Amino acid sequence: MDTMDILARPAPTPQRPLLGTTVLLVEDSRYASEAVRLLALRSGARIRRADCLASARRHLETYRAGVAIVDLGLPDGSGLDLIQRLHRATQRPQVILATSGRPREEVELDCLDAGADGFLPKPIESLAAFQQTILCHMPRDDWPRGLRPVGSEQVEPDRLALSDDLVYAGRLLEDDNVKPVFVADFLQGLARTGHDNELLIRSRTLAARDRDDIRPELRALIEARLPTTRRVI
Fold it and tell me: Do 193 and 121 reside in the same domain of the chain?
């Protein structure tokens, strides 16, 4: 970090330990994004969101992120490719974290090999875990002075964003250019974030089949969870 960055950044406090930090979240789920937005704001961080790789590249052309949180499953490619690019960049973010709705043991090693500093499993909802995961990879000089309270606070995003994600998944399912397994993986992440164990089990089973004929079963899962007023996709 150069001298101008240090001078321009407000000093973090124990209550707002990420004050002055810009977080770039690359995530296509509105529900998961809303959770991270709430956590970032309560930590004092600024947050910008990109919902695909192309949008993330545009963001990175105009500003520098201190922290990048990258979902692995994105509509236009793998988040691992972006993590590799960020890791090799001349101005690398201080902290690069991967996130996914897939089981940690299946994906974490690949994330670290690509250059990520750590992994945030979904659901991302604990304020203490969010702050600690970021701070442990930042220089000690950027930590707040004094004791930092560690509580049990969790965030709960607006459930309307969950409905929006289900509508989005339904649209993806009708796109012949999108593989059904991508939709199944998206639903896994949504199930973890929304604490829907039945959806998690069924979407994982369908993802493991990785065949085009799972579309009707995915469609039934989506429609069963949409409110009556949002059934039409």
Answer: no
